[in-house]
Amino acid sequence: GTGDVKLGSNYALGIKPQVEAAKKGYAQVLWVFGPDYQVTEVGTMNQFFFWKNAKTGRPELVTAPLDGTILPGITRDSILSLCREWKEFDVVERPYTMTEVVDAVKSGRMLEAFGAGTAAIVSPVDGVSFKGVDYSIPLNPKDPKAQSGPLAARLIDTIMNIQYGKQKHPWSVVIN
Predict the structure, then answer these.
(1) How far is CA 21 from CA 132, 163, 167, in A?
(2) For residue 171, how many other CB atoms are within 10 A of its CB?
(3) pLDDT tens digits for 10-26?
């Protein structure tokens, strides 16, 4: 396939489902693949879920691997790199399914979710619908009025501060 490259043909087929989702009140389409409903992307963005691992209980940021179906964007790479630099939780690139997502929500292990891409940078996800059931995803349980979760907010702030030279980082060099 051509999921790993930016081609108009990759997006054209998503227009009708996006319009249908919008009519039902959803902001984006969460794309899944195969009989086990592997999560791939959300709209035209990479999808990330931040949850407590079901086996270890450790916080974990998970996203789909670069297997030829996922666009290897710079924002995706920046998020993964920053989170690995922080060494505060596990960062995992692996196939994962909607069954895992639903289980994390139902069991209270879901911490937050967001999509990431060039235009949006980080876009919080406050819920998903799967097989006709809507599942709420917390943005910030400590602040019900928050527009994003703590990790999403930290990531967007960090990335923008690096971009604008407000935060020193090897990715950005301020030139006078």
Answers:
(1) 12, 33, 38
(2) 13
(3) 565 667 766 787 788 78
Placement of tokens 């993964």 in the chain = 80
User: What angle is formed at CA 111 by the lines to CA 109 and CA 112, rounded to 5 degrees?
Assistant: 135
Say how many C-beta atoms besides its own lie within 10 A of residue 130's C-beta. 15
Q: Please report the beta strands in the chain, taking only residues with DSSP state E, as ranges in sequence order.
A: 30-33, 38-42, 45-52, 59-63, 90-93, 110-117, 121-124, 127-130, 133-136
Q: Average pLDDT, whole number, for the chain?
A: 89
Strand partners, 93: 63
d(CA 146, CA 96): 27
Q: Which residue, among 120, 113, 97, has the nearest Cα to 61 in the 3D structure?
A: 113
